[in-house]
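Narrative progress, year one. The postdoctoral researcher (J.K.) led the effort to move from monomer predictions toward full complexes, under supervision of the PI. The following entry was the first complex the group processed end to end, covering 1043 residues in total.
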Amino acid sequence: MVLQHKDGHALALVHKDGHALALVQSRLSQEGRRIFFAFGAGLFVPALRTEENWLSAATVPHQKISKTRWRPLPPGSLQTAETFATGSWDNEENYVSLWSIGDFGNLDSDGGFEGDHQLLCSIKHHGDVMDLQFLDQERIVAASSTGCVTIFLHHPNNQTLSVSQQWTAAHYHTGPGSPSCSNAPCTGVVCNNPEIVTVGEDGRINLFRADHKEAVRTIDNADSSTLHAVTFLRTPEILTVNSIGQLKIWDFRQQGNEPTQILSLTGDRVPLHCVDRHPNQQHVVATGGQDGMLSIWDVRQGTMPVSLLKAHEAEMWEVHFHPSNPDHLFTCSEDGSLWHWDASTDGPEKSSLFHQGGRNSTFLSHTISNQANVHQSLISSWLSTDPAKDRIEITSLLPNRTLSVNSLDVLGPCLVCGTDAEAIYVTRQLFS
Amino acid sequence: MEEFDSEPTVTWIPGVNSQKKQMCFDWGPGEMLVCETSFNRKEKSEMVAGCPFIHIIRKDIDVYSKILRKLFNESHGIFVGLQRIEEELTGKSRKAQLVRVSKNYRSVIRACMEEMHQFAVADKDSARGRQFSSQVSILSAMELIWNLCEILFIEVAPAGPLLLYLLDWVRLHVCEVDNLSADVLGSENPSKHESFWNLPGNTQTLTELELRWQHWHEECERHLQDGTFASNPHLESLCKVLLGDDAALLEQKELLSNWYHFLVTRLLYSQPTVKPMDLHLYAQSSLDLFLGGESSPEPLDNILMAAFEFDIHQVIKECSLALSNWWFVAHLTDLLDHCKLLQSHNLYFGSNMREFLLLEYASGLFAHHSLWQLGVDYCDHCPELGRVSLELHIERIPLTTEQKALKVLRVCEQRQMTEQVRSICKILAMKAVRNNRLGSALSWSIRAKDAAFATLVSDRFLRDYCERGCFSDLDLIDNLGPAMMLSDRLTFLGKYREFHRLYGEKRFVDAASLLLSLMTSQIAPRSFWMTLLTDALPLLEQKQVIFSAEQTYELLRCLEDLTSGRPLCGEPDVQQLQDDDIETTKVEILRLALARNLARSIIKEGSLEGS
């Protein structure tokens, strides 16, 4: 009896220590903050509110993660996301890896998944992984700091990755007066199978086709400064953002190296780091800047953003509209935060909050466009300027912010993000 | 200077022979460079083939362990959290927080240990596997020491509960680390203990407990003296164990894996209410009895002994000497400092011990290819020398991509390290110039507010314009905005481009007055005036009059200024003569055009006024 008791106590200690271990591992499920906007005359500053029921396990890959991407689901599939790819940066050896988040039914008490991320396979990648995109379900396109663009092929049978296609000097500098060239980092890539568009520090835009050895189209000196990101607007138009705060639209049907349109932030020339297009309304575009500001643009009109939203305290590295639920937007930043922006207008909780607040100043300050309210129902919630309707609720998803969150991706109810603290966070319950 | 506690160990650098060649070295903040020199010791000695390498010698090798990266990353988060709890908490809640932090640190050590153990098992027979298992034992020693420090210094367990904590401590490490069977303590199966362990500890005072235990103890002793168990030697020795008889306990030495296990067992049966202050007496005698003069204490024994003596300073010192990393001492010292235990120990080092150790650890991180980001926060929390240290390290981070540079810049900008911001931007601007990316170069010099470099880049733009007759990078130059004011040359570049734009838009009058003002306000460099005047030619030749009479006079004055100020060189060569020829023709054409424009403008202005 005595022994049992003592054992019980010892167990309790082991348990306590076990709990301490669990504390470290699931520390993210403890806090969590929800953020609401406080209204203001100028740019608005978020106010904080706590929220429970959030994020899940961290995986430690022993590498700083630069990119995380869900593998697309087969068309018409009812599954949820299961496999994601990561790229690392700033290591002596960098890798592109595929991970599986395992099967269902493993929910722990916090609603998260405890450590059941499984590394499926990994392949060495020369240079930092600057960007990563799935071309289709088997192929991943990686952009390298060496200027190289590689297509990796996943073989599910023996769980390996192999190089299926490579353009070694897709981006390069030419020295002054000399024919010698040095590699320039490729900073962004976007895919629309079989087309691949890449941009780089050399200000060059390349259009590749997965089955062509040579670039289909190259625009040299497309930009005098560094191009940071690229996205498709509507084929064959693309949209790039650069380090002097400009958004440029290019049409591959046109010859020459001039963009069809330049939009820019006024005056400040704050670099833009990321861009994403609204999945349904192709004229609505979101960008994130060096000052952490989120800008919403309507590329059909004006050369300035429709709204500027004060968000993170440092560089916004990525912005993503939710692919199937575009009233939701996700951003991550160098300041270590990951935010969920909810602009859906039909929340009863929100409208009551709005009335309690009793204010009716325009939510999206710095509203520049004068939209006619004729097609109100057709106007995106991101462009709306009606103060009674446009409320954006922000939730901060990672409570213990330390190092930069470099990348995120959303698919269905699942979100994955990767950080400089060598951790990957996954949740499968975005909207619960 | 303080004397060394032990002789510093000699580190051999493979491939270097200091007997044959003279060596030279240079200190870096976290590492050292060593190479051979071509200096010959003996004059005219035979040429010895030298080693062509420069060696980088690093202090903190554990930083390079892949699995320990988890330890560094996770503990970084705990460290930052610990720095935040501070001040507003007092008393019990503060202590509870600190204990929790300590446990979190330990659980990270354990997690690493488990992972490392898995690698060691998977790789059992190779040298790498052996390396892993030696790492496992280092980690387990670290956790053992940390746990004891937690009990003694952070938890500050009073007499009574102290022994419970110590029991748990031994149990945890003997069972889990050394993989011995979990019921070592159980082998002494003291069923009579029920009365002791079932005591409701909460309601009973320490004296009561002591009394009742004393009573039980005496009863045991009486049984022994009466020879109750004399018939059975096993029972007798069991009884002796229960009485905490040293000799009887030592007979079971093989069950006791080490001296601190012996110590805790001994305390359990003879001094269950041992006071913290008396611990070191029992510890010392246990160590002596257990080793029995057969072997001398190892570093781990010394460290634990120092802890039992409550000599924190000695614990940290011994750990620094024994362990191959700074992680342990840095984090433990910081935690103990937060427990306000190190105030009196400030005197022995340059700044103070906490800072010294944290900075040593941080410099190891900075030397690492990718862990440098963690080092920043450690520097931030060293008020005295952290800033200087950070400044020193941050400039040495290689900037491979702009993205990485931006991260380094963010670190500097957040801390108002203007000097470092400038230097990083300058490096990037230089790189861009080398790569013929003038637009990028200009952007970086604008960000650094580096006027001199902006002038240099602007000159390159103007030179390119003169050579090619068109501007590159219009997207940037057209959008300079207020940044244009950074340097005169940049202003000129921007304004000159504006002139071209106005001209292109056929806004001739605006273009003309802008062109003139560029010269009269002295913004345009003198060397560029001829180009500007040539640009005026098509305006002078327009059908309508664009330059007014007054403006034409100004233009004339500029032209005369330029031509009269031209110095005469000594022996002109053929090329120069040819150039001069072209120049003279240009001037002639300009004079003609100006004269004609003057005539037209006078007529026009006269007729306007007259009408």
